[in-house]
# Entry
Amino acid sequence: MKSQPVTLPEHDASDHTALSRRKLLLGSAGLTLGTLALSAAPALAAEMKMAAADMPAKTGSDRLYDINTFNGMSDIAHDPTDIPPPITRREPATVRVDLETVEVEARLGDKSSYQFWTFNGRVPGPFVRVRVGDTVEVHLKNNENSTMMHNVDFHAATGPGGGAGATSANPGEEKMVTFKALNPGLYIYHCAVPPVAMHISSGMYGLILVEPENGLTPVDREFYVVQGEIYTEEAFGTPGLLTQSYDKLIAERPEYFVFNGHVGALTEHYPLKAKVGETIRIFFGVGGPNYTSSFHVIGEIFDRAYQMGSLISPPMESVQSISVPPGSANIVEIKLQVPGRYVLVDHALSRAEKGLAGYLMVEGEPNLDILNAPKNENASGH
# Structure
């Protein structure tokens, strides 16, 4: 059957501001993959500590991104409800995906900021949704104000590099690759320019869903959540513009663990919201680059969990937590029966002390047959 072209909808953000970023003094903007070999990474990290100069935002209708603000600070957090709708067509199509790699200083914590490297000004990048058999046409543009080469490796692609070689772009360049979505499932994509871990830990990751031929079972709400790590020279909670630490990255000693970009992204900014009686689906991934997550929603049990994002294998049922390694993903579904505030965590709970928490706010009438919990003045914890 002949493929029909489809263009994914662009992100619709209501609160935008001119992009204020700091350009890192890394020498020539025309860096190549060889220049960024792992042997050169310590010197690169040292240069990243240098003072930076403010750069104006790019303007114009050709820009693929908008930077939101929160309390007057640029904000790269990805709204977990910002997901394309389920695919209703039953024939393959050519789907165009537009990505722009953007380096931006933005909020990390209440009083701190960080130089993020992003796809389309968000962490994680756009949620890409296609159908098995589709041809995915990826256009990657590296913003002219970038200081680094960037590219994208799709784990859903079959072939060496997942498209990374073809999409490697210097600042100001645009590259393109196409691939056939052969296998249904939920997959990570990420920047693969060496040092790869440095690009990933700076925010360059996202998810692509390849729906099976008959689509997914309908649910009431879908959410997009991705866990990541941030490695800074400064200790957790230090105010000001924080600097990336290559030494801590290689030693796997992050100062921050985050859902959807930064501390508070899924508590203060974008808590997940639903109602009693609804069934929700969470597309969960781990950008990493180093730590496996034991994803858990405190007070809930996953009715179905699609391990490793597989949509061919039957899901596990009645699961308390799921183990998701870096560079992988999972899909969980929950039927909500009791109202209240549920906390999303990695059950390696020390990471909550480094910023890793989210809220699921459920509205509705109490169900005392399921949970009868009188108020307790000594209540603590969740």
